[in-house]
Amino acid sequence: MSLYGANPEELDHLGATLTRQIDAIATVMSNVSSVLAGTTWVGPARERFEGEWNGSFRNALTRLNDAFQAAGQDCTRRSDDLRRVMGVF
Predict the structure, then answer these.
(1) Which of 1, 38, 59, 71 has the most CB atoms lying inside 10 A of its own CB?
(2) Residue 2, class by beta-carbon neighbours within 10 Å (0-12 exposed, 13-18 middle, 19+ buried)?
(3) For each successive 10 residues of the chain (89 residues), what is the average pLDDT?
(4) Would 56 be classed as within a structural domain?
């Protein structure tokens, strides 16, 4: 017999874990931007990297944060729904 569904406590934990990653990724973005701004580096390699960082790299990290936020909220909502169905609330 297989289980179909989820454990509400585990879903809460997963949701919280996903949500915490948002801060970690925001910190990476901030740190790289700050260090890059303070780095003495002139030339086409910097321009190329800075363009990629401010374009595709930051956009990808922003999309990842958005996905973590949505998934974290979804886990929390599902956990609440399960508790309601189970009569825990």
Answers:
(1) 71
(2) exposed
(3) 80 96 96 97 98 97 97 96 84
(4) yes
Copy the structure tokens of residue 1: 């017999």
**Helix/strand/coil (H/E/C) assignment for every residue in 21-53:** HHHHHHHHHHHHHHHHHCCCCCCHHHHHHHHHH
- For residue 27, what are its two tokens? 């910190």
Query: Number of folded domains in the chain?
Result: 1
The answer as to whether 36 is a domain residue is yes
Sign of CA dihedral 22, 23, 25, 30: positive
**Global confidence as pTM:** 0.82
What is the rounded CA–CA span in Å between residue 48 and residue 44? Answer: 6
Does residue 68 lie in a domain region?
Answer: yes
18 secondary structure, DSSP code? H
- Inside any domain, residue 62: yes
Q: Which residues contact 62 (CB under 8 A, 6 or more apart)?
A: 29
Look up the CATH number of the domain holding residue 50: 1.10.287
